[in-house]
Each structure stands twice: as structure tokens, then as C-alpha cells.
Amino acid sequence: VAPSFLAVALVVAPVLQADPSGFVAWDSSELEERSLALGTRVGPDDSARETLADYGNPSGAHRFRFIRRDGDGRPEQHDNIDDVVYIQGGQGTLLVGGEMLGRRGDLGAAITGGSQYPVRAGDVLRIPAGTPHAYLVPDGGHVTYVLVRVPAFVGEVVAAPDGPAPQLEPPGFGMWTSTELDERDTALATRVRPDGSARETLADYGAGGSSHRFRFIRRDSDGRPELHDDIIDVVFVQSGEGTMLVGGEMIGRSNAAGSAINGGVRYPVAAGDVLHIPARTPHSYLVPDGGHITYVLVRVPAFGGPN
Asked: pTM to 2 decimals?
């Protein structure tokens, strides 16, 4: 097992015992139970949190957190880390951009200016490094989310990215609401290819089709086996259900006709689940007859690999 995978296993060993590859699935019912448990442990700052998985990156990147807020959060700003967020439950408002006042480390006292966006369960967000932001929660409400801390892209931005990013304020901020994703899913269903899939790029943040890319993929039949040497796949299942075949031995080339996986472990997956597929791990999406699975795929650079 590669050292980067060992760091994850140390944090989530009970989950990983069945699959030494490092694959982890947090299903929607587990996340709901975790949210309820966090609700009993809310601290004086009106929040409770836990670490789902951690690669041990000293920068704080490559960490999966689960956070519940029953009141407004303090302003945050991370210089070298992009926040990728999946809203699991509740609703609130994200204040993003502007100028952070009274900053000490990653936290501040207030934000002047900025833009406000309503957020609710099923939304996917991308908050770029260096951007002030705060979660605002209505009285008596809460918002709970999975936070994936992604190392900011370092390198030359490609002239023609794989797909245009949303034109929102502040620049670099990305948001795909659950309603928008439902509409995109319906549209993809009309464009399914002979291989049983349809896809589009939600945003490519400069790496030219490899890491730091957000994809939206619908499968109406089994997908070809895949393996990515330098990419971690973070998956938010948007609709449908199926089975993930993970691990084992890749026979043939990744994503090629006629390839297969020898061995591996199968996991049921469904809407609301969050998946972590490590780099260098064979995997394939299996779909029941007459069914489908649609998901947001976030391509994260592997720990120790290129950013």
C-alpha cells in the first residue's frame, strides 16, 4: 500500500478493513446519522465537526471533514487550499468574497462586501483559495456539509480548459445547485451515447482536463473499468443507484473497450452518497437493467503527485 493510502487508513481504519485499496463510501443514511450525532455536540461557536478521512498532508489539504452549523460561522480564508463542499442537509446562506477583517490565521472577525448565495441539501460548491467566506444559518435552522480540502492548483493555466467555469462573483467561485443538477441530469438522459453514458464538464480550473476538474456523468449501463495514476476521484452521487466495483487487478487499458477488473469488492451506491476512490485503484460503475446513476466527479491531485 502506498504511503498516501496509509495515512487515510489510519484515520478511517474501521471502514477500510474490507477494502485495503483505500476506497471509502459514506452513504446518505450514515451521513444523516452523523449529522444527528453532531447536533448533540454543538459547541459554543454553534458548530460541531469531525474528520472523515485525512491523508496527513501537512498543508491541511487532502482532508475530508463533516461539519454541522446551527448558527453563523466565523469568516474563513485559506491561502493555499480550495474548499469543495457538498451540502448534506439543512439550508443557509454562503457569504463569499469581499474583504476579511481582523484576520488571525485562517479565521477573521467579519467580512465587508462579498456576495451571498442561498445553499441547501444537494448543492455542490467550490470556494477558491484566498477567498473570504462564511456560512450563515437562519434562527432555528442548521446546515451540514462534507468539506473536501483540495490543494490549490499550482502551474500554468491552460489557454483552452476542458470546460468553462461558472461566471459568478467572486471570480473562481463555483456553485451547482441541486435544482440545476436535476435539470442537467434530465438533459443528459436525452444524450446517452452507445456506451450507455452521457457527460459534461461543469468546470475546469486550469489543469487542462486532469486534476481540478468538475464533471457531471450519467450512466444508464455499466461503465468501462478506469484507473488514474495521479488523480483521486471524489464522487457526489446525485441520482439513481448502482454498484461500485473497486480494487482488484486491471486487465487491459483504463477506459478502453474490452478491459476488465479481476477480483475487487462491490459496494452499493445511491443518491446522496459520497465516495473516495484513491489514485491507482481500478474501479467501475455497474448499473442495473433499466436503471441509472448520475454523479458529480471532482478530480483531485493525488497526495505526493502534481498539483
From this structure: 0.91
